[in-house]
Amino acid sequence: MKQDKASVKKLVKILIGAAWLDGRIQPEEREYLHHVATEKDVAADPEIQPLLNELKTVQPTECYEWIKEYLGEHPGSEAYQELLESISGLIYRDGEVATEEARLLTKLQSLDTTDSSSQGAYSSVLQGIQTLYRRWVSSQS
C-alpha cells in the first residue's frame, strides 16, 4: 500500500507517541523511530523533527487522537493491520513491554475494523488510555 506523505507522517507521530506511553523513550525505541522516520523520508519534516528528537513530549491523549485521525471514521483492515504491526515493532523493540504499552496493544487488537460502530471502539480505546494514564500518574507520585 503506497501511502501519501500526510498518512506517513501520522503513522510516525503515532509511533513516537506510543514510545512515550511509559513516560520515556528507551534507546532501542529511539533507534527504531529514527530508522522508520529516515526510511519513510520524514525525519527532517518540521512537524516530525521536534517529536523525533524528543524536544517535545507526547501525552497519551495526543497519541490516541493521532490513532483516531490515522484510522479515520471507518478504518480499513489494511490501515489497521499496518498500524498494529508498526506499533508492535516499536513496543517489542526494547525487550520489555510496559503495562501501558501492553494495554495499548490489547485495545488496538480489540478494535474490530469491520464494525460499523467504530466510534464506540474509539471511545473505548480513549477511555482505556485515559484510565491508564491516570493510574500511571498517580503511581508516580
UniProtKB/TrEMBL annotation:
InterPro entries: TerB-like (IPR029024). This is Tellurite resistance protein TerB. The lineage of its organism: Bacteria, Bacillati, Cyanobacteriota, Cyanophyceae, Oscillatoriophycideae.
